[in-house]
Queue: 2 jobs
Job 1
Amino acid sequence: MSDPRPIGIFDSGVGGLTVARAVFDLLPNEPILYLGDNARFPYGPRPLEEIRTFALEIAGYLTERDVKMLVVACNSIEVAAIADVADAHGVPVVGVIDPGVRAAVHATRNHRIGLIGTEATVASGAYQRAIAQTGADARLFSAACPVFVEHVEAGDTSSDELLEAARGYLVPLDEEGIDTLILGCTHYPMLSGLIRMVMGEDVLLVSSAEETAKDVYATLRASSLLQAAKDGESGEARLEFLTTGDPAQFRRVAHHFLGPVVGGVAPVDVRVVEGVSWS
Ligand code: DGL
């Protein structure tokens, strides 16, 4: 059995590329169709109901493009809509919160875990609930870091302004004595150098990307949806990038973070699926 259909991965912008990269590294034969909703970025400050509407539009669009599974590579979308996305589209759906929590709970030694994310993610309490579900006896200390994503989307990982914002968000968490910090927004692994500078080497940074890739693999395997390697070939899969925003800007930023795996980027309007306008 071999299923050549692509895996659909989506986010409000370039953040989900951290997850796409991990999936591509683990499963080089799997075609990926990545969609960034850059025109409506950022999602973090929006009401959950609005994020849910956007998520269903994107999932609907990707399903029309015949993806074999959906990866919600955005914490803010996951807290707003992952159950609805799963109900509406009939393909397996994988998110990023449980994988990140799993890794953090496994890693912490002092049971004091930090979480940084968007306003939507932090306010939802989803990480608190996910930690409780593991049965782990750990305390969670959270901080929303709203300006981080704007800098990432602009390709900035090291300006003075960003460093100052990072200190403002992170020093109070450091003072709580956490030994593990969950990067609870898929944009944040792109700032891990800067975050590490502020937090120091004693705090472990947890990105959900690699753990999520393992879930993608396990889900494809369990559903017999893997694409078999062609004889003597590997890493030949197609990566397609779509954005609702400016393709040139998306390409510039994506190339900065991912290098040459980013080829063409096509513009897309997810509100129009086969002549049906969602707005
Ligand atoms: N990458 C998204 C997340 O993981 C958030 C970015 C945004 O605010 O749009 O939450």
Note: Residues 141 and 176 are 8 Å apart (CA to CA).
Job 2
Amino acid sequence: MPRTLDPQLKRDLTERVRYYREMGIYDLYRRPVADAGSLQEIQPESRDEMTPKSKAAVAVLEEDLSVAPRAEAGIADPAAALRLIREDLGDCTRCPLHKQGRKQIVFGVGNPRADLMFIGEAPGADEDQQGEPFVGRAGQLLNNMIKAMGIRREDVYIANIIKCRPPGNRTPERDECETCSPFLMRQIAAIKPKAIVALGAVAAKTLLAINAPMSEFRGRWYDFRGTKLAVTYHPAFLLRDPRQKKETWKDLQMVMKELGLAMPAKGVD
Ligand code: URA
């Protein structure tokens, strides 16, 4: 990696790396190519997949470009890391939802050291009003599901794929999910849960990048960046079709088994 960059190239690279940072993408590597001046060489990639040489190159690039590393990098305390991520999110205007009637950003709630995370779709009217995920009718049912597992809402961490209420509770657009979810990825990385439960198809599709119906998602474990991830029905769907509570209870029992939680006889009410 050369230590001196052409000033224009440096400006372009700085802008590009800042853009990735804004998107919550921090891990970059440089492909070995003939034309070292092209911006197209820089691609996001998981740091786990990087060779030591690539990691060193990224470190030099970051230093050279004076780009701040991820705010919570090196912070071992998950509560402190979550605070830094929240600060970084700020009064977010990264997608159009900020000017479409949101009252506030709904970041996430719960135990920063939780073994289990629940991830829903997007805040609804009650959540937008109170600034906390799953506090409306669907939230009451989620609380019952958590209680049925023999744990408390305060023991788990609850978040959504997107942090602002879409107008009229419409399904989030793909670009809204793509813009917002990097912050969720950072929350997951800070909390390091043992298991994640994706609630409903939007959460499952976004996290797993698989387009499948709920019937195909359920009933098995997925590997999500080294963390076990299960998919079950969204509580709002269960309010519309309570017959599926029985199936949901099967999914939750699979999670309880993985976490070593005692199996109560009772299911989800
Ligand atoms: N539905 C969701 O997906 N998330 C909430 O926070 C509330 C309802």
Note: The pocket of uracil is lined by residues 120-124, 127, 133-134, 138-139, 160, 236 (CB under 6 Å).
